[in-house]
Amino acid sequence: MHDPQGILAQLKASINSLSAIAQESDGQQFLWAVEFDLEQAKKFAEQGDVYNATGCLARCASALVQVVYALNERYFVNDKGSMRGISSFGLKPADFALVS
Question: What pLDDT sits at residue 49?
Fold first, then answer.
């Protein structure tokens, strides 16, 4: 888009970070989801249910990505390019987002 006055850039900058309240809420919600899904994954694994165990682990990974976004006060839009975004964040676990 052509935006010679920089109006879109100003609007984008105003919504680039999460409020402290939203950040805390998102982080807590997703950490709870990780804890819940890990318990479910363990139960499925003990039953030999590989399909559902791996599904739970995938949900854990997705929730942890969203926690990292919340900690860095960034909006999580979708999974496409999310790891590339995390690779530039200041707050993240070591080697969390290895992107070449």
Answer: 98
